[in-house]
């Protein structure tokens, strides 16, 4: 586990094809390193629960 890691569980993600996916997102050193159905909470130093929220990881200053 990196001290610069963040787990964002239960986020709704908009995929490139326009479909939606509910998944966990793991960020380390300001980069997304994993998107999966379930990531263990002990894989990250911090956690933000995104239940009911939308996460758009590929959109930066549209």
Distance between the amino and carboxyl termini = 32 Å
Give the full name of the CATH homologous superfamily: Urease, subunit C, domain 1
Radius of gyration: 11 Å
Number of helices: 0
Protein name: Dihydroorotase-like cyclic amidohydrolase
Organism: Chamaesiphon minutus (strain ATCC 27169 / PCC 6605)
InterPro entries: Metal-dep_hydrolase_composite
GO molecular function: hydrolase activity, acting on carbon-nitrogen (but not peptide) bonds
Detailed description of the structure:
It is built from no helices and five strands. With 62 residues, it is an all-beta fold. It has a single domain, classed as Urease, subunit C, domain 1. It starts with a strand and ends in a 7-residue tail after the last strand.
List key phrases describing it.
mainly beta; Metal-dep_hydrolase_composite; 62 residues; globular; Dihydroorotase-like cyclic amidohydrolase; Urease, subunit C, domain 1; five-stranded mixed β-sheet; hydrolase activity, acting on carbon-nitrogen (but not peptide) bonds
């Amino acid at each position: 586990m990196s001290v610069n890691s963040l787990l964002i569980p239960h986020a709704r993600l908009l995929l490139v094809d326009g479909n939606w996916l509910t998944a966990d997102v793991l960020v380390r050193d300001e980069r997304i390193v994993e998107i999966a159905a379930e990531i263990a909470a002990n894989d990250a130093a911090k956690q933000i629960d995104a239940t009911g929220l939308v996460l758009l990881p590929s959109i930066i200053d549209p």
